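Materials and Methods. Structural model of Tetraspanin. The 216-residue sequence of Tetraspanin from Pygoscelis adeliae was retrieved and submitted for structure prediction as follows.
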Amino acid sequence: LAGGIILGVALWLRHDSQTTNILYLQLGDKQAPNTFYVGIYILIAVGAVMMFVGFLGCYGAIQESQCLLGTFFTCLVILFACEVAAGIWGFVNKDQIAKDVKQFYDQAFQQALMAESDMNNGKAVVKTFHETLDCCGPDNAVGAITPLWRDDLCPKKETVLKNLIESSNCHKKIDELFSGKLYLIGIAAIVVAVIMIFEMILSMVLCCGIRNSSIY
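The predicted structure was written out as tokens:
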């Protein structure tokens, strides 16, 4: 059940409309950074393997098989080690993910402002960011200095004053999007880790109980 829940959460994050709209974008021959999906794929793999390993543990408990329970324990240890490694990787790269996406947005924004922007898809990329995240511009300073591009690129007819008050710049919205998603991934990883620890303890207790009972 825990594996199914983790798999469901991971698939929901993978196919979330906001992230897919942004991370599938392509600016010329450059693809949007998809480092975020590495963590999602790890969660999907962990969820799927947990479902299989959980079935193995249940069957081993029903059959009172020390071999199956030992295999179940070994698989849990391997999964736990992979999850710890993935958690360390995610903690190290959590700021880099949003930074890479913001850099990609800034490049598209600069191309959208250029006179020859019709020759590339910079405007289309920027509009997708604006419509998906309901934001406008890379930061408030740029919004105050260059308000002329708003009618062409932004989803709403916004005034410069409104943008300054509400801080609806895309850098902030990108940070909010990925910090929220990474926070959810972190919670799921902690829940899985706690469940795994209990599973390892209980499987060893059951395995030892079966071994002792066979003596009598």
